[in-house]
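From the pipeline queue, job 12 of 40. The input is one protein chain; the requested action is below.

Action: predict structure.
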Amino acid sequence: TGSLTIQGDGSLEVVGNAEEGIAGEMHLNINGGTIHVTSKDDGLNANNDNISIITINDGYLYIAAGGDGIDSNGALTINGGTVITLSSLTDANGGLDADGEVLINGGTVIATGERLSTPTTKSSQQSVIVDFGSTQQAGTLVSIQQEEKQLLNFAPALAYRSLLFSSADLEEDISYQVYSGGSATGENVDDVYGTGSYSEGTLKETVTTDSISSYKSRG
């Protein structure tokens, strides 16, 4: 189809043998709802070169894809909601993949894969991108903390090498510790642990958000 808009408070589940989960030739807009996508190829795709725009304003989106998690042949804008997007490690796939500009202005965004498109400096929300330098097996915990404050305890269902995390809790010019492995308590919903504790992980990197743009670690 040319354009597709999803909104409301309902639920949508795309699973099974679909090559692509949700696709539109021109534009995709997500304004609400709870969406779970499992696909052989891209989870969310808009494939008109240099024209397509994917915009996420609200809602809840979880993607586990055999290709890219979210793939826009044009621009990608995330203004709100919760976005968890996992990709395979084949063909340099990523949870966020856009040929054009990536803007993250709000919401909570967690993306993993081989490589990830970097948000532009025009974004109004901080992001951290971590390249672990080697493949992390599916289920390997990653924790992002700021001193005693835990911002993310996440165990992706798919193997990954890179992770992007964006949240209103991230602040400019603040250092964050990235841990790998270990264990976490609390309820696990779509690979994210809720209120609980994290222990016995290995400190992989300390990263500092030094501008609106993403800080990229290669540790």
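Job complete. The chain is about 0% helix and 50% strand.
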